[in-house]
Amino acid sequence: MITEAERRAAAAALIQADRDRRPITQLSHTYPDLEIVDAYAIQQLWAAERVAAGARLVGHKIGLTSRAMQMASQMTEPDYGFLTDDMVVGDGATLDASRYFKPRLEVELAFVLGADLHGPNLRVHDVLRATEYVVPALEVIDYRTEVPRSITDTIADNAAAAAVVVGGRVVRPMDVDVRWVAATLSKNGVIEESGVSAAVMGHPAAGIAWLGNKLAAVGEHLKAGQLLLSGSFTRPVSVEPNTVIHADYGPLGSIGVAFR
């Protein structure tokens, strides 16, 4: 593990990198003793700084939900990050590509809770019962450190979360089979990726249950009204200036976002 002073220095460096749009050396290189518990502590220091600057915490994102990504990161479980209100944009938004280092997009479902969820021992049915609605979402992921990265670098860097685009049709979780929501992702009119939501841990609500149980271990819980990204069911697609993205979720509608 690293010291509290080193955690604060690492968080400050990430915050500055985000402001400058200039990646820093991997924290795992700067702090060879960095562990996962340190990485989450650094992430929380970053979140506290965002709140102190006027942002509002509105939810969480879950990453590494596919077995392939876990194996690539030498992990046996997902990871998670925070979402603030200034990270959430609506369908049809135009984003400044220069705001990011190497932005990529992932196709996801967002769960919005209608009731609190307290772990441990949460299951899929607990999540569905507590969910007010599910809505299509695109996550913009980005790096604030150089690559290649260890899992501790990714977690400290807010699990690579940069922004989330929300749109399409709002549905109640019992009105559709949430496991079998399919989507295609097009870049400048060409379909680059497609997938089905069951690719997220067998059921996207399983990721939400995992997060609730994980937070319970540190004395926290999922709160009513929170926006929760359940994990990608496609590979990430890179974006550059003059890129138009369209995600088609069939009966759940579509989302569009452009990068200038």
UniProtKB/TrEMBL annotation:
Classification via Pfam families: FAA_hydrolase
Organism of derivation: Streptomyces coacervatus
Protein name, as recorded: 2-oxo-hepta-3-ene-1,7-dioic acid hydratase
Assigned keywords, A-Z: Lyase
Domain of life: Bacteria
KW Lyase (keyword) present: yes
Domain Fumarylacetoacetase-like C-terminal per the UniProt entry, residue ranges: 67-254
Keyword Lyase: yes
